[in-house]
Each structure stands twice: as structure tokens, then as C-alpha cells.
């Protein structure tokens, strides 16, 4: 089929993907190898390229091609591709350039104020910058459009088709299920200290993570791994996927679980169907679904006993002095300890989602003008006590801990919780489809799981919205039932305690 508008549109999509790839490379480099003095030059280069990208996206001819192509498109893949492209373009067209510029400036100012506030341990240093960011995000939400709930417009950016009305009850249910579970499990998974006072040489950790990527099946000829302060996955193309990890010489967990996490993201990126490359379909339909892939490998596989039954002898061989006397079961308990913490990134699988419940409820109240920025630290502390069960010592341990709001990113946090829920549902479906999955994992054979994920999730890219994709695989959309069943089974066994009953299944 050759439709002139569709051909022209495809050519433009290719061009935009190429520009996006170059932006990805510059951003990756900024976080890994950029010399200290090159920061301002790189910021200018990124701004120029982003401007170019924007112009090529919103150009009037693209709108005309798109409309004609939409009228003529009949096959499902083309329609899905046009839908994803329209979403991005409409967003870019509706948000005026002056607002984009104002946001970029407010983000830089926000980051600086946040750093200042953290170093002085005073939230009020951050108040004016955060107030400004919220003002601009409200403007942005109004420009994009919403049905009376501004948060929807921001959420939609990260999790298309998800709404506040759909999300909040899911998170509230999680809160009521998890609070008693944390009460029952806090401190219950005990074991001897495994990492305290031991040394894990950085270079050997690095070599171990590379070996791990090979064992997991990451294609190192279509990607690479480097180090950064905050691990992330980026890159330029499904044949060029860049992972990063972080090494702490006192504890191998950040490197090992960071690599497992980013591997999950990277495998997804490498798995997009070649016929979709350089089109909007070669992407995940949502951040939540992307996060499901990282959490599945990091937690559901990567913190399981069968997986460590295979991997632990290798880790012990890499660190014979530190781990020579540590048994597999003790190591496994150490990486599955349940303990309340005020810090999200240190949270275990059981408490983690409570940190998201807290942030999301505050974000919604801020966007609804139900909560003033000045009152945010108090609201944070009150919610933290109600939800996680402890009070932060100060604002650095509390409301100032995450970088997201310093960037003015609202609507991102909930995708972490959605990722956890989707991961558990996908894993249940994988277990049903692959009856010998865990025996294979115990032998270090991960090929069946990789293939299953590729067939069911990765190759499809953005053909379907996230929840529809999950529903097509599991028969159910977003649900907490699989996640809570997973937690109860795993941590019931690890703690030897009888856990509070599961709530009635539902979404
Ligand atoms: Zn992630």
C-alpha cells in the first residue's frame, strides 16, 4: 500500500526518531562521561536539538498528512501508530512554546533550589520554586485539556489512558491491604548481617554485573553498560540500548539489583519488532508497563530463592573473603528484609508501594489546590506516619528526598506502583504458561521467560495501551490481587508468620 500522505508521514516519523536517538545519546553522555566544564555547552546543544525536534513535529504539513492518513488507514498497526503519533503531536501543538521555555527555566531553578534546600535542610528554601513549577504545570494541564481533573493531563503524559478516578481507588485499596501486612512483617525477616563491615571491591563488582548481563541474556552487541550516580536506561535505538549501574564498595546490592532492574528495561527496548523501528510503535505504551519489566527481573526473579540458588555460588566466587562464610539462605533473607524506612529508594517490596500512595495523594491535592506548598512538609509527615508508620527526622529525610518534584514532574510516581502490580500479574501468567519456569530459573536457564516476555509484551511495542496489553495476556486489567498474593506467599514463608487475610479481589 502506498498512500502519499502516509509515506510522507512515515518519513517524518523516521526523522523524528533519529533526532530522538541523538537526543538520547547526548543525554546518556551527560550522565556518564561529559567533562565537568561542558555542562553549559551540552545544555545548549540539547535545547537546540529539542527545538528542532519540536518544529519538525508541529509543522502544519504534518497535521495535514496525519489527518489524511487517519482517514485512509485500515490495518490495525497503522491505526495504532497514528494514534500514538497524534497523542504526542497534539500535546506538542497545544502547549505554547513560551510555556515550554518557562517550564525549562523553572525546572533548572527548581533543581537548584531543591539542592539548596537539602543542603540547608530547610524546605522553605524550595517553596517559591516549587510554587512556580506547580503554577506552570497547572497551565500545561489546562493547555493539554482535561475533564475538570488537572492531574489527569499530567498523568496521561506518563501513563496514557490512566485517569485519577481510576488510579486513586487502586492505591487506596493497596494502602488498606499493605498497612496491616507491613505491621505483621516489619522486622520479621531476620538473619545474620551479611554485608556489614565487609569489602566488595568495585572492579570485581563491575565485572560481576557484566557477567550477570550475559547470563540474563542482554545483547551486549546491541547495547552496553556504564556507570552513573543514578542508574537509568537510555540509548539511541533498539540496537543501541545503554544501561547504567551504580557501585557501592561496602555492599554489592545496589550494583546487582540495579543491573537487574535496568536489564529489565533494556531487554524491553531491545525487543521491539524490527518493522516498528524508527516509528512511534517502537516504544512502550506507558511508563508503568516499562517499569513492570524492570521490577519483574529485579524483584520477582531477582529476589527469588531459585534465582540465587543458581547465582549465589558465582557471587561468592567473586567475593570469597566477604561471602565465604555466608550461606545462601542467609544471603536471600538479607536481600528480602522487610523494614519500614522513611526513604523510598531504600524500601523493600512490601513497603515500597506505600511510598507511592503517599506521594500520589499529595500530588493530586496540590494540583487540585487543596493543599498549599507551604503546608506540604506537614502533610508529608502526617501522611508518612499514617501510611508507612514512621515520622521523618527532617525534610531531607521527608518531603525533599526525591528529585521528581524539583523537575516539576507530577504524575510520574504512580507509574512505579502500576509497574509493581503489572509485573506480578504478568509473572502469574508466565508461571501458568511455563510450568517448569522455576526449575529452569534454578538452573540459570532464563530463555523461556525471555521468549515469553518477548512474544507477549516486548515485540508489540505501543500497539495497545498498557492496561489492554496486560489484559490481552492475563485476561484481567489492572489488579492488586496477583501482587498481594505474591507478597503473602513469599513473605509468609520467609517470616514464618501467619499474615492478615487478603481483601476481596478487585481492581
Ligand atoms: Zn525503572
Structure description:
The chain is mostly helical and 507 residues long. It contains 21 helices and three strands. It has a three-stranded mixed sheet with strand order 1-3-2. A hairpin with a 2-residue loop joins β2 and β3 (240-245). α1 packs across α3 (60-72). The radius of gyration is 23 Å and the shape is globular. The structure holds zinc ion. The site of zinc ion (ZN) has 4 residues, from α10 and α11. The site of zinc ion has 4 residues, from α10 and α11.
List keywords for this structure.
3-stranded mixed beta sheet; binds zinc ion; Neurolysin, domain 3; 2 domains; mainly alpha; 507 residues; Methane Monooxygenase Hydroxylase, Chain G, domain 1; 21 helices
Break the fold down into its secondary structure elements and pairings:
Layout (H helix, E strand, L loop, with lengths): L3 H29 L6 H20 L1 H13 L3 H19 L2 H24 L6 H18 L5 H9 L5 H22 L16 H15 L6 E5 L5 E5 L2 E6 L7 H18 L16 H15 L3 H14 L1 H4 L4 H7 L14 H19 L8 H12 L25 H21 L3 H6 L4 H10 L9 H9 L6 H15 L12
Parallel strand pairs: 1-3
Antiparallel strand pairs: 2-3
Helix pairs in contact: 1-2, 1-3, 3-4, 5-6, 6-7, 8-15, 8-21, 9-10, 10-11, 11-17, 12-14, 15-16, 15-17, 17-21
The structure holds zinc ion (ZN).
Amino acid at each position: 500500500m502506498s498512500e502519499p500522505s502516509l509515506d510522507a508521514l512515515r518519513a517524518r516519523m523516521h526523522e523524528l526518531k533519529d533526532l530522538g536517538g541523538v537526543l538520547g545519546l547526548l543525554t546518556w553522555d551527560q550522565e556518564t562521561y561529559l567533562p565537568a566544564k561542558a555542562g553549559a555547552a551540552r545544555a545548549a546543544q540539547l535545547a537546540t536539538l529539542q527545538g528542532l525536534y519540536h518544529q519538525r513535529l508541529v509543522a502544519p504539513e504534518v497535521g495535514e498528512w496525519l489527518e489524511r492518513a487517519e482517514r485512509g488507514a485500515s490495518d490495525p498497526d497503522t491505526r495504532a501508530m497514528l494514534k500514538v503519533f497524534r497523542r504526542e503531536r497534539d500535546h506538542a501543538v497545544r502547549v505554547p512554546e513560551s510555556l515550554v521555555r518557562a517550564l525549562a527555566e523553572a525546572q533548572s531553578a527548581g533543581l537548584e533550589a531543591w539542592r539548596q534546600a537539602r543542603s540547608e535542610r530547610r524546605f522553605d528554601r524550595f517553596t517559591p520554586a516549587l510554587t512556580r513549577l506547580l503554577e506552570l504545570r497547572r497551565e500545561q494541564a489546562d493547555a493539554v485539556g482535561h475533564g475538570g481533573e488537572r492531574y489527569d493531563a499530567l498523568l496521561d503524559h506518563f501513563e496514557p489512558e490512566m485517569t485519577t478516578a481510576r488510579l486513586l481507588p487502586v492505591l487506596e485499596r493497596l494502602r488498606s491491604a499493605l498497612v496491616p501486612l507491613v505491621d505483621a512483617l516489619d522486622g520479621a525477616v531476620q538473619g545474620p548481617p551479611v554485608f556489614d563491615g565487609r569489602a566488595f571491591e568495585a572492579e570485581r563488582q563491575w565485572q560481576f554485573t557484566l557477567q550477570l548481563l550475559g547470563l540474563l541474556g542482554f545483547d551486549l552487541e546491541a547495547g552496553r553498560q556504564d556507570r552513573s550516580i543514578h542508574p537509568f536506561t537510555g540509548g539511541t535505538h533498539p540496537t543501541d540500548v545503554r544501561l547504567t549501574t551504580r557501585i557501592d564498595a561496602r555492599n554489592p546490592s545496589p550494583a546487582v539489583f540495579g543491573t537487574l532492574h535496568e536489564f529489565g528495561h533494556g531487554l524491553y527496548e531491545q525487543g521491539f519488532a524490527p518493522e516498528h523501528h524508527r516509528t512511534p510503535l517502537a516504544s512502550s505504551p506507558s511508563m508503568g508497563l516499562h517499569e513492570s519489566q524492570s521490577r519483574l527481573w529485579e524483584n520477582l526473579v531477582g529476589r527469588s530463592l531459585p534465582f540465587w540458588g543458581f547465582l549465589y555460588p558465582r557471587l561468592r566466587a567473586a567475593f570469597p573473603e566477604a561471602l565465604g562464610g555466608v550461606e545462601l539462605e542467609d544471603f536471600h533473607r538479607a536481600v528480602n528484609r522487610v523494614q519500614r524506612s522513611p526513604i523510598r529508594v531504600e524500601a523493600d517490596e512490601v513497603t515500597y508501594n506505600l511510598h507511592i500512595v503517599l506521594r500520589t495523594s499529595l500530588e493530586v491535592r496540590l494540583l487540585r489546590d487543596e493543599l498549599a506548598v507551604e503546608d506540604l512538609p506537614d502533610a508529608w509527615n502526617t501522611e508518612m506516619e499514617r501510611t508507612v508508620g514512621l515520622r521523618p527526622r527532617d525534610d531531607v529525610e521527608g518531603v525533599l528526598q526525591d528529585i521528581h518534584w524539583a523537575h516539576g514532574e507530577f504524575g510520574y510516581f504512580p507509574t512505579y506502583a502500576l509497574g509493581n502490580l503489572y509485573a506480578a500479574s504478568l509473572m502469574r501468567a508466565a508461571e501458568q504458561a511455563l510450568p517448569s519456569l522455576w526449575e529452569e530459573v534454578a538452573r540459570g536457564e532464563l530463555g523461556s521467560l525471555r521468549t515469553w516476555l518477548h512474544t507477549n509484551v516486548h515485540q508489540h511495542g505501543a500497539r495497545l495501551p498498557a492496561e489492554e496489553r496486560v489484559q490481552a495476556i492475563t485476561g484481567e486489567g489492572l489488579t492488586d490481587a496477583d501482587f498481594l498474593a505474591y507478597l503473602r506467599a513469599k513473605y509468609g514463608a520467609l517470616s514464618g508468620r501467619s499474615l492478615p487475610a487478603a481483601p476481596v479481589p478487585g481492581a
